[in-house]
Protein: DUF2777 family protein
Amino acid sequence: MKNRYHIMYNQPRAHTVGNVEYINEEWVFFDEETDEAFALAEVVHDDFEILYHNHWLPARFYEEHLVKIENQIHPLQDGEMIRVRKKLQYVYNEWLQELRDNALEMFAEALAKWEYSLYDSIYCHNSLFFQVGPGPREGVNFIIYDNSEMVCALQHQYIRSGTEQKDIFLLTKANGMTLTMTI
Structure:
């Protein structure tokens, strides 16, 4: 079974990709997908990745014009490609963390078959988030995904009580196609 990190890391649309330019004494990030420009400091808060010798490598700012890549200092240059992991909505991320490993893996695979990514979530109502404590928990979560081609709704019914751990996923695309999985 894949581990959670690999499932999340290898999702399509998990990163915002673009190039950087130094303009008016400030690094500017140009989003490859939307062509929007942002101050690089608004996009990169901690770690990011830089395309270095045709490989994405982890990088961190060392100083204003310098980045550290594999313990080497590298001057940031106009036109360099960087990518930043997209942030997930807080309650959606909490929902993903609540899923058992096998449920997450099977759900991610089902989404991928329909050409959706875990990063396509645009809305999440996480009922589990409001049910705290050690007692049994039961309910339904509602999540909406949009892959820019079609919207897909998820109803996730869950039971968490003692030894019973059950997840029922009902995916419905805007064209009426449905898929049900019980894990």
